[in-house]
Amino acid sequence: MTANIHLLFSKVLYVKKINIDCNQILNIVKKQTWSVSGLPRDKNNKQISLASKNKKVLDDVKYKNLKKEIMKEFYEYAHKILNYTNNEFKMTTSWFTKTYSGQETGYHNHNNCMFSGVLYLKINENSGGINFNNQENFRFLLEPSKYDILNGRDFTIEPKVGHIIFFPSEVYHKILPSKSNEERISLAFNFLPVGKIGGVGDSQAYIE
Q1: CATH fold of 14-195, please?
Q2: Residue 85 φ/ψ, nearest 5 degrees
Q3: Which of 3, 13, 60, 9 is nearest to 172 (CA)?
Q4: Cβ distance 197 to 207 under 8 Å?
Q5: 150-153 long-range CB contacts below 8 Å, 24 or more apart?
Q6: Residue 146: exposed, middle, or buried by beta-carbon count in 10 A (0-12, 13-18, 19+)?
């Protein structure tokens, strides 16, 4: 009799190429001011990717259609895939990232939000993908003869222009080093549930 395999407590990663005019969005990027993203690796901050100082770029009414498209895709993930249909969600922050040759970020996750996402606007095969890492406290470290979804502790996506991804905010991830002479540009965002959270007997809360 064949054994049944169940993937317990999965972290669900959503990846899809959407039909959106990335060149039009890139015009927004030209108006941004930038700061170093995360902790510096050297005194000149040359190895760290950049983030727009504006962390609510999609709150501008001029970009309401873009935000609407992102939210529409997010609900495919939150409502139709994860079945969190008892709550609506709101985008709490949104910002651009820019990476030049040799730049990257360290592993990090996003606090004070439930889900996070990225839309890739300008990227090529040498720009550096996004790597997800399981940083749970493992009791033993074994080297499998073959890495797969059942034993792997990290997972890398090599996105293309127009790809959008969503993932739980607690998952550690990083931008891999760019080996491209062209800049890599993406748009990132975070989400929180709206309405009542918690079940009967739990510490309930209400988020407006």
Answers
A1: Jelly Rolls (2.60.120)
A2: -85, -5
A3: 13
A4: yes
A5: 150/5, 150/7
A6: exposed
**Domain chopping of the chain, boundaries:** 14-195
Listing DSSP states for 26-62 in one string gives HHHHTT--EEE-SS-SSTT-TTB-EEES-SBGGGSGG
Q: Within a 10 A sphere around the Cβ of 91, how many other Cβ atoms?
A: 19
Q: Residue 13 in contact with residue 167, Cβ under 8 Å?
A: yes
Strand 172-175, strand 154-157: pairing? unpaired
**0.85 exceeded by pTM:** yes
Per-residue pLDDT of the chain (208 residues; tens, 9 = 90+): 899 989 889 999 999 999 999 998 998 888 899 988 764 444 455 578 899 999 999 999 988 999 999 999 999 999 999 999 999 999 999 999 999 999 999 899 999 999 999 999 999 989 999 999 999 888 898 999 999 989 999 999 999 999 999 999 999 999 999 999 999 999 999 999 999 998 777 788 888 8
Sequence length of the chain is 208
As a whole number of angstroms, the distance between CA 195 and CA 153 comes to 34
User: What's the token pair of residue 31?
Assistant: 């108006």
Neighbours of 190 (CB within 10 A): 20
